[in-house]
Amino acid sequence: MTGIRAALAAGTFNEDVIALEARKAAQAAGPAPTVTAASAPAPELLDPGPAQVTPLTSRRLARALPSDQRPLPHLEQWDELLQLRRKDSSS
Description:
This protein is mainly alpha-helical. The chain is built from five helices and no strands. Helix 1 (about 1-10) packs across helix 2. It is elongated.
């Protein structure tokens, strides 16, 4: 959760940022505690409350993407490669 909170505070939903922030928080916290089967879960883990999900699709659609001005690729060379026959490796 720390990684997600830090990424949201930075204004991003990028999974790389979340992973990096989570690793930084884990390193700062030191070694992980030993958990046994007899341990009871923390009260805040029993009922996390309603999830807050931000759909990214509507955000992406809200901003129009710029038109792609790149020329179309030339595929003639690829067509030539497809016509070549593979040499039989068993002979």
